[in-house]
Design goal:
alpha/beta; Rossmann fold; SH3 type barrels
């Protein structure tokens, strides 16, 4: 094995800690870098960056490596957060973790690591990579329940080539057990969830600081008003919590309410009852601005697998591209639950993550026009 200088993104969590420990045990020259990506309202109530830095320092001490703290907050605000707000203003639901990976963790961080003389970088992501046919492929992790290739699908060949994923072949439970056995102090630390810059704070309150509240009616597909929303930007397709219309029953059926669509022109939020309502499912999904990890896309049309949400299993589909290559169209064998504008359609060929595109479900449904809604449900046409 060749000894290399590898800079590890050390977050203060158990995954990056074990990644650093493994590389150190393999004899590499390992340096830890803690990335600070958010500065606005950086307090201990909702933002854990101070505590995470303390944890990262404790981990570095146990592993026996140097730790540097680097501030990428300006890059994050410009490259990730600005896009986040633009998408919400347009009524879409972005996934900032995808951009954070492509713009910060595997771009700004990679650039900084090279100034430290790094030959490679490493993270605690659950994914794998390999070289095949002269290109670097991104593969799913061995632990399917923790696989994070979905969040890494916008990486380029240049970004993937120097990356090491030490946890790619490990199960999460084994990572925690190893951390405990070697004395890593954060071995039992809870995994971070949600959007990093929001933390545990109420999402709607956070977004209201940047986007104005524009209340309007909550309506059923046939146009009956059942409540008031606080602003279309604060809701996403498939959302169940926070609608505050749970007491509306009788003629509207049984079961929980779910967001099925947004009528931007009328400022109406369209809701339906029941997780399995037909208007929540789509067989056809269109997505824009494809990105292919190989630099070029697969020969399309083709039979592949894809997913429209991180937590959903891969689903078989026929994937085709527009004539100019700027859009993808996936026709799934089985309808998919609540594909959401702004999220990502990510394509796979077996374990290989090919890339993806931003979901775009055109054509808003107008409440009060039952015929349009029936047609949409029958054809699985998108709710806008």
């Amino acid at each position: 094995m060749t000894r290399e200088r590898i800079v590890v993104g050390l977050s203060g969590g158990v995954d990056s800690a074990v990644a650093a420990w493994l590389l150190k045990q393999q004899g590499h020259d390992v340096v830890g870098v803690f990335m600070k990506n958010w500065e606005d309202d950086d307090d201990d109530e909702y933002c854990s960056s101070r505590a995470d830095l303390v944890d990262a320092a404790a981990i570095a001490d146990v592993v026996g490596i140097e730790l540097e703290s680097v501030n990428f907050a300006a890059d994050y605000r410009e490259r990730v957060f600005a896009h986040f707000l633009t998408e919400y203003r347009a009524g879409r639901t972005p996934n900032p973790d995808v951009l954070c990976n492509s713009e910060i963790k595997f771009r700004a961080f990679l650039d900084h690591a090279r100034t430290l003389g790094a030959e490679r970088i490493a993270t605690g992501h659950y994914a794998r990579s390999r070289v095949a046919g002269g290109r670097v492929e991104l593969l799913k992790a061995a632990d399917g329940s923790k696989d994070q290739s979905y969040f890494l699908h916008r990486l380029t060949q240049e970004q993937l080539a120097p990356v090491v994923f030490p946890l790619g072949s490990m199960l999460k439970r084994d990572v925690r057990n190893l951390a405990r056995d070697v004395g890593i102090p954060t071995w039992a630390k809870k995994d971070s969830t949600g959007i990093c810059f929001i933390g545990e704070r109420p999402f709607r309150d956070f977004l209201a600081r940047y986007l104005p509240r524009e209340p309007g009616p909550i309506v059923t597909p046939d146009g009956r008003e059942v409540g008031q929303h606080q602003g279309l930007a604060y809701y996403t397709l498939g959302q169940r919590q926070g609608l505050r219309i749970g007491g509306v029953r009788a003629e509207h059926g049984d079961g929980a309410w779910f967001v099925a669509g947004k009528d931007l022109a009328r400022n109406h939020l369209v809701v339906v009852r029941g997780h399995d309502h037909p208007l929540l499912y789509r067989r056809d999904v269109r997505a824009l601005s494809p990105h292919w990890i190989a630099g070029v896309g697969p020969a399309l049309p083709a039979r592949l697998a894809a997913k429209t949400r991180y937590r959903m299993p891969d689903a078989r589909c026929a994937l085709a591209a527009s004539a100019d290559g700027t859009a993808l169209h996936a026709t799934f064998d089985t309808p998919q639950w609540a594909p959401t504008p702004g999220q990502y359609l990510v394509a796979y060929d077996g374990d290989v993550c090919l890339g993806g595109a931003v979901i775009d479900l055109p054509g808003s449904i107008a409440p009060g026009e039952p015929g349009a809604l029936v047609d949409a449900a029958a054809a699985h046409v998108a709710v806008g």
